[in-house]
Amino acid sequence: MKIKEIFEGVYKINNDYYTKNLVKGESVYGEKLVKINNEEYRFWDHYRSKPAAALKNGLKNFPITKNSKILYLGIASGTTASHFSDIAINGIIYGIEVSEIPLAKLKILAEKRKNIVPILADARKPETYSFLILEKVDFVYCDVAQQDEPRIFVDNIEKFGKENCYGMIAIKSRSIDVTKKPKEVYREVENYLKERNLKIIERVELDPYQKDHAIIVVKNNP
Ligand SMILES: C[S@@+](CC[C@H](N)C(=O)[O-])C[C@H]1O[C@@H](n2cnc3c(N)ncnc32)[C@H](O)[C@@H]1O
Predict the structure, then answer these.
(1) Is 76 in the pocket of ligand 1 (CB under 6 A)?
(2) Which domain holds residue 193?
(3) Tell me, what CATH number does 17's domain have?
(4) 92 and 144 together in one domain
(5) pTM for the whole structure
(6) Domain with 107 in it: what CATH number?
(7) 34 in the same domain as 96
């Protein structure tokens, strides 16, 4: 089997993407595990996780490294975060989730994945969890599927991001405006992000894996 590390901690095997399993022998959401040269890799399902769909569609900038400190808004039960946790092995993921049910599952995951910190909070109110995040982060990932998601994203980058912080926002076009075409929504979100002084690095649409979704990669612009 041919394997290639395409970004730090992200591996391509036969046109699909994988991360090296931090907790050997354990699958998180039913994804398959593959052994190559005594290492175990987890399939990163592009139908279940938006960054994997973006990788399938040619994402060029993947700003997570093994040392990344990450703020994750809308972490749910940790499907995507489990792959970030495989990558940021010396880093930390502060996971904000407003709903108790997925957070309960995330807490079980975090017992073995020590780099995930589950936090029950509303991402619209960063002041309610700032006492738990005592350091600036390298990367903010936002996937809350709310109409005011762009504002939530930027408010958190401004409050918690380092000077050269990167961010990724997963946009579900219909959550922002059902009456507009997805491309129009993505453009409007980008304009808003620019107005709030972020630099747009890349946009990748996620069809057909995630219909009418896109990921926008940004960098703060001090
Ligand atoms: C699309 S799901 C996230 C899926 C997850 N990012 C993944 O890929 O594994 C959106 C999540 O955002 C959460 N959410 C919605 N509004 C929120 C808010 N204001 N603050 C924190 N979490 C929120 C929802 O409860 C839900 O779990």
Answers:
(1) yes
(2) 50-220
(3) 3.30.200.20
(4) yes
(5) 0.98
(6) 3.40.50.150
(7) no
**What's the CA gap between 60 and 1, in Å, rounded?**
24
> Ligand 1 center to residue 97 CA distance, Å?
6
Same domain (yes/no): 194, 112: yes
Between CA 206 and CA 47 the distance in angstroms is: 10
Check whether residue 104 and residue 193 sit in a common domain.
yes
From first to last of the 222 residues of the chain, give the pLDDT tens digit.
Answer: 789 999 999 999 999 999 999 999 999 999 999 999 999 999 999 999 999 999 999 999 999 999 999 999 999 999 999 999 999 999 999 999 999 999 999 999 999 999 999 999 999 999 999 999 989 999 999 999 999 999 999 999 999 999 999 999 999 999 999 999 999 999 999 999 999 999 999 999 999 999 999 999 999 976
The gap between the terminal CA atoms of the chain, to the nearest Å, is 44
- Shared domain check, 89 and 36: no
**Do 212 and 153 share a structural domain?**
yes
Same domain, 101 and 119: yes
Q: Tell me if residue 134 falls in helix, strand or coil.
A: coil
Give the atom of ligand 1 at the shortest distance from the alpha carbon of 122.
20
User: 140 in helix, strand or coil?
Assistant: strand
Q: Is the distance from the beta carbon of residue 144 to the nearest atom of ligand 1 less than 6 Å?
A: yes
Q: Tell me the Ramachandran region of residue 45: left when phi exceeds 0, alpha when psi lies from -120 to 50, beta otherwise.
A: beta
- Give me the pLDDT at residue 54, please: 98
Find the DSSP H helices in the chain.
50-56, 79-87, 100-112, 149-160, 173-176, 182-195
85 and 17 co-located in one domain:
no
